Amino acid sequence: MSNVSNVxxxxxxxxxxVSKEISGLCQNPPEGIKVFMNDEDVTDIxxxxxxxxxxxxAGGNFQMKLVLGNNFPAEPPKAFFLTKIFHPNVSSNGEIxxxxxxxDWKPELGIKHILLTVKCLxxxxxxxxxxxxxxxxxxxxxxxxxxxxxxxxxxIHAKPL
Length: 161
Prior knowledge:
Strand content: 5-15%
Order of helices and strands: HEEEEHHH
Number of helices: 4
Largest sheet: 4 strands, antiparallel
Oligomer: single chain
Distance between the termini: 25 Å
CATH topology: Ubiquitin Conjugating Enzyme
Number of domains: 1
């Protein structure tokens, strides 16, 4: 993950659009999601997603980051969990794999759609496209073991300060 800003590589129209959407999400966030705006760099989008009730992630607060590339919105942003999480669709470095950010991406999909998709991934993981093979295998073959491991990670890494 690069800490270099892409703001100078985006068109003024894209910067205005992203800034407006992030501002709106800060004022009226989706349920269970808190968005943080970086006034210095609109390409630095961070959010906290509350672990959904009824999942092994319940009670946790998961920090995530969206990284907008030079070709956004023609190309999807990359999404990362900054909070360590045991999940089939999250790699060891936190990268999130979800079809919305890959083959199903459309430029008209906004930041809110991405955040809601990531939250839904906590409710319904997709073990068929696992970045964490161990989590994917456990989810499919031994759900209780998967759930216990995910709960343990949530307890250790995702509790509010």
